[in-house]
Amino acid sequence: MSIPSLTRLDVIKRAWPLVFANAAVPLAGVADTFVLGLSGDKADLGGVALGGALFSVFYWSFYFLRMGTTGLTAQADGAGDRAETQRILLRALAIAGALGLLVFLLRDLIALAGFAILQGEARVEDKGADYLLARAWGTPAALACFALSGWLIGLGRNAATLAIYVAFSVINIALDLWFVLGLGYGPGGVGAATAIAEWVALLIGLAFMAFVLKRQSGWARGVLDRAKLLDPAAIRELFQVNVNLMIRTWSLVIGFTWFANAGARQGTAALAGNHVLLQVISVWAFVLDAFAFVAETEAGRAFGRRSVRDLRRSVQLTGEPMLIAGGAFAIATWLFGEAALTALIEDPEARAAAITYLPWCAVVPFLGAPAWLMDGIFIGTTSGKILRNAGLAAVVVYLIADALLAPTFGNHGVWAAFLVFYLARAGALMSAYPALERRLHSAPTASATDANPSA
């Protein structure tokens, strides 16, 4: 049976819910930053910057639960194996529960060891510890949401993903306002607001999981069969994909943590200003990732169908709007960023630092778009080794650039090296793309789409 080709309209229809869903996540982080900017000082902002960077090492290290689940689910869906899509979800939720509980139980040790390594003033580190210890209560729920959202995206259920993360963001922002501006809890209140919002998001995600399963007429026959659920080949594939994705994510987390620490070496004001600008970058990155998520699903389905033609089409039709949007966001940041920062940051030193380095921040959406797009393509095809190697190569290039530029140019050098990080990621992944097509060319079977160019 012929499978309809992906169109530009399909991409837009499927991306727009993810635009808002992805924007909701960093908007919660922006709210964390700006309620502290309005009520606290640069020590509060710096504390959340360091605490957030440290927590990210453990939190985003497990983002493979979202990425790997999306890729494997999309491939199983493309191959028409409904039972396997459901088994993938169960395996991912089991891993998420175990890892989330482990991070929660080790939260005090993580704080103690982490702040012994990071370079911040004593007051900044105390604020960071308050944030981290409160935030850790939401870790099990957050990791389970990774698995659930990855499964929903892999099935193309993007509106459900939107509902989950909009609810998370709304609750987080409301609690930020109450805990910080109302009750004066500071960084600890910010962490608690996020943790509570993550548990609510998990409950909503489980409700959508039940709805999707009902639409699929319940669990597929044999999906709960112990032998199939614990099939050694499937477990081995899951392990290999996730380990490579975890190493890849570690390399990126190291890069972002290094960026925070590099700012701390320039002083508390520079650290606070960099952190605020990084929240702006996070908003644009998450929004543009909507197109990368569509690319993940379509590349995974193309891989499941063994269709090079469909793979190329997914790159083209998701890349075009992503680059256009990245350019538009860069211009908007350049034109309106200073006014926004002036209105939202109370501390004069942090505000001045953010405005000084705003031009570096403004170009990131456009320069980062190719890296985020290629991430989506390789995640969807579960090309873990390529993502791992590209991530490691990019962070090495970044650390060398920072060592060369920061001592001479100060915080301007810190930002210049950070841009090199994005360019290195894109370059490494783009150079590996021809090998991905060769994998499909050498596949033993071809899809109906390949056999019928008019499909």
- Helix content range: over 70%
What series of H and E elements makes up the topology? HHHHHHHHHHHHHHHHH
- What is the molecular shape? globular
Q: Total number of helical segments?
A: 17
Rounded mean pLDDT score: 83
Low-confidence stretches: 444-455
Q: Structural class given helices, strands, pairing?
A: mainly alpha
Distance between the termini: 9 Å
* Largest sheet: number of strands, sense, barrel closure: none
Radius of gyration: 22 Å
User: Per DSSP, what share of the residues sits in E-state strands of 2 or more residues?
Assistant: under 5%
Count of folded domains: 1
How many distinct beta strands? 0
Question: Key terms for this structure?
Answer:
single chain, 455 residues, mainly alpha
Layout of helices and strands, plus pairs?
Blueprint: H1 8-39, H2 42-59, H3 64-78, H4 82-105, H5 107-117, H6 122-135, H7 139-154, H8 158-182, H9 187-215, H10 226-229, H11 232-265, H12 268-305, H13 308-344, H14 348-356, H15 358-380, H16 384-441, H17 448-451
Helix pairs in contact: 1-8, 1-12, 1-13, 2-5, 2-6, 2-11, 2-12, 3-4, 3-7, 3-11, 3-12, 4-7, 5-6, 6-9, 7-9, 8-9, 11-12, 11-16, 12-13, 12-14, 12-15, 13-15, 15-16
